[in-house]
Protein: ANTAR domain-containing protein
Amino acid sequence: MRDESDAGLRLADVFRELAQVVYDADDAKQIYEAVCEVSVAVVPGCDHASIMLRRREGSTERVLTVAASDEVAARADELERITGEGPCLDALDDEAAQIESDLTSPTTRWPALAARLIAETPIRGALGFRLLVDDRKVGALNLFGDTAGDFEGENADIAVLVAAFASVAVTSAVRGEDASTLRSGIDSNREIGKAIGLLMAQHGVTDDEAFALLQRASSRAQVRIAELASRIVQGHAR
Structure:
């Protein structure tokens, strides 16, 4: 059985790591690269990451790689476009996360892509998460692993959390918001993440239950969740 206290601390670490890297970004490209860098750094089993966005060129719509952690991730994206299948392409049209923990399995949902990845790259597992901006499907975050079976359980949960942050970052970049606006949003989410981790550790509850506690307390106190989370974190520090 998973230790919820430990899980809470790891969730808080993910918020902190992502915020720290994004703080150093000055433009959209650096933001995308930062998300890929953090994905590899904090998601267990993730060895490569990329972001693909929809771009319209005249009357033609294309899906382009705007950032990749390395050449392996960039090649994986290229193979998705060549074969016409994969986690990113499916994530663009499906609300659910696209998870294939073992591409070597004969029942893989992307047989053409899997065959090329296995033959040409070390990749053996893949995840795809849709990225939304104002309810528009603008792209996807791709995570790739070199070990089959790693994208399961808690590892997948942490990947979902990073994908949520990726949506925040991409939204700000696509809207053209400045770095201070982005950092303000990341700061709020980071405090919420820390508060969730503390509540999980103190009360032995899941992350969903901890967030529900925050929501109820926020409603009763008539303060924003981010403000309440900040108070909890500051109180703990004192």
Observations:
- The chain has nine helices and five strands.
- The chain has a mean pLDDT of 79.
- The beta strands are 48-57, 60-68, 98-100, 125-133, 136-145.
- The longest helix spans residues 179-203.
